[in-house]
Amino acid sequence: MSIAAAVPHAPEALPQPYLLFLGDIVEPGYAKTAFGLRDWAPERCIGEFACAGATVSTGLPRLTPLQARALGARAMVIGVANPGGRIPPAWVPSLLDALQAGLDLVGGMHARLAGIDVLRHAAVAHGRRLIDVREPPSELPVASGRKRTGKRLLTVGTDCALGKKYTALSLARAFRERGLDATFRASGQTGILIAGAGVPMDAVIADFAAGAAEFLSPDADPAHWDVVEGQGSLSHPAYAGVSLSLLHGSQPDVIVVCHAVGRERMLGHAHYLVPSIEETIDLALRLGARTNPAIRCAGVSLNTAALEDAAAQAAIASTAARLGLPVADPVRGGAAFERLVDACLA
């Protein structure tokens, strides 16, 4: 058995294709790893597998580990990002099924696969690997606050799990399609699994978190864009710390604020209201100016997944009129998204 201490340098280094494991979750927001891989690495995803009682689906074929292995799968990826990054005891029988079927396990949780005795012993017995990607680089620096060369964009959210990663991936792709040198910088386990590199910011010791964001977006050619995946929300009662570290450490020249239409309560913290887009823009610019006085907001990424197209277009248009900024849903694309890209590059 081999246990990976850190993420491989390329997605091809991970055993693939994948069977996506959805645990026993009933909240779609906690399946963002599975959805992210389905949407941004579909060629690596062969199907999904879940415990009894799960109600979330990616729409991929439902397969047992044995069926997936017979179809060519080489690993089962935990597609869940739950509060605290836990691996509940109820999941363990399903994880054992995957090992026994001949699949490696890939996890991005705070809980390490190799830290669960029964999984470690089963991996040895079946000659399988336990691969944890939520492992930060060793010897990260304390942030210097030094201004670095190159251009940087950071996605900032009003809440968790509402489109910061999709927005960053979409913008990085759009920049490259326009002939610009742009890199998506992953800061969470899903982004790392998609990109093959990055820093899992929420696994970094707090004193080194802003330094990790500096490490993630180093000096670059003056024309190069680093498009940094945001995490959490500056207003979130649990995760604001990682959001602020990314803001200070990445020193963005541009922010794009991400918001989900209709989301009124913080995910996992329903006793807290989601802040307004206006409040989020103001807070991000005030705090971000500490390390980059020239920071600006280019516009808003609006997650309209819950709406039909006509209602989505109306929401985009009304939000743009209210804010006086470009607003788009990157998944829907179109002219509104092109205007948002224009504003980022202006």
UniProtKB/TrEMBL annotation:
Coiled coil: none annotated. Residues 142-336 form the D-glutamate N-acetyltransferase-like C-terminal domain. InterPro entries: DgcN-like (IPR011669), DgcN-like_C (IPR035086), DgcN-like_N (IPR035402), P-loop_NTPase (IPR027417). Residues 51-136 form the D-glutamate N-acetyltransferase-like N-terminal domain. It holds the Pfam family DUF1611_N. This is NAD-dependent epimerase/dehydratase family protein.
